[in-house]
Amino acid sequence: MRKVIVIGGGAAGMMAAVAGAGAGDRVLLLEKNEKLGKKLYITGKGRCNVTNGAGREALLSHVCTNKKFLYSALDRFDNLALMRFLEEAGCPLKTERGERVFPVSDHSSDVIAALQRELKRRGVEVRLFAEVEALETEPLPEEEREGKKKRFHSRILGVRLRDGQRISADKCIVCTGGLSYPSTGSTGDGYRFARETGHGMTELSPALVPLKTRESWCAELMGLSLRNVSLRMTEGKRELYRGFGEMLFTHFGVSGPLVLSASSFYGKRKSDDVKLYIDLKPALDEAQLDRRLLRDFEGQKNKLFKNALGGLLPGKLIPVAVRLSGIHPDRQVNEITREERRRLAELLKGLSLSVSGTRTFDEAVITRGGVSVKDINPSTMESRLVKGLYFAGEVMDLDAMTGGFNLQIAWSTGYLAGWQE
After folding, report:
1. Domain that holds residue 260
2. DSSP calls for 118-154
3. Which of 50, 93, 364, 407 could anchor a disulfide with 206, C-beta 3.0 to 4.6 Å?
4. 316-327 pLDDT, tens digit each
5. For residues 202 and 35, is the Cβ–Cβ distance under 8 A?
6. If you ran DSSP here, which 8-state letter would residue 382 be given?
7. Which pTM was predicted?
């Protein structure tokens, strides 16, 4: 029976431990926090969007980085397998708009409890307040080193804890997460372990994160949520992202599901020419919107322009829209020209913002970048450099849009890393 150490008790770590024990290994799960699933607990505003019910191709289409790397992990343990697992573990699920899957109770604690029951049932030893200081390895003798494809240079021996204790193992699985929400313990430990053992790293940046904008008028709209709008993000003439849904104005710029997804395509760009275009009326083309404006204005001929947009826009947005339109707020509606009405329609179909950057890791849902997948075997999640060392979850250079896709990456890679007979 192999002795396996799983480092990190988040989604990937708990699933790796469950899978490893199911494969017949003796598993020790080390978590530096006072409880398991600390980040999972706050996921989805405490509701925990555990996965997405979309088909395989649709699911992969929402992965932003290294989607081909995930084929084997999804073959072994996909979203349907995850849903069966949780329901059989006593956590009934429901599917909402956008194929987002949640626990029926709307409590992330029920997902964590189901995983903990499985850990206990399968005999996994869980040790809390156990912070790993370093991985312990030894060089492989030349005759044991494999060919170019795997190029192992060393093998895992175990771990050394912060208190100096050494624990031996035949296999270690690093599931330490990224840098987002550092208060939950995501402080980049796994990146350090990877570097110290010779693994390549890609650049780290916040992802699924609010965006800062140059326009000061966003602060006037702070707290305003827009639903059923379209959002485009461009860099020069190139479109980076297009989506439909909900967004939110803040004191620094914009946030909400649409913006978080768009941020995954912004990354570390230094360009000053990244713009957002909000279509406030996506159900109408410009000609239809012009007819709608004409109809509304004809019914309010004697009103001032600043008082005539209540049927079209939320009240908080009206003063900003009036100002950006260039039409004097005290003009009577019956004096507005066809050209001015056309410009207003263009504004409503493409309210523009200039992106100046992202917020920090403290506000990011996930981390973009991580351990290079070139140094990891996608069929097993084992390092190509250190025999017996595996990686799973956010610590790797994998990320996806909102909607349960990132958690599915954690479940799938964690299961594959754990279940190696």
Report:
1. 210-280+352-358
2. HHHHTT-EEESS--EEEEEEEEPPGGG---TTT---E
3. 364
4. 999 999 999 999
5. no
6. B
7. 0.90
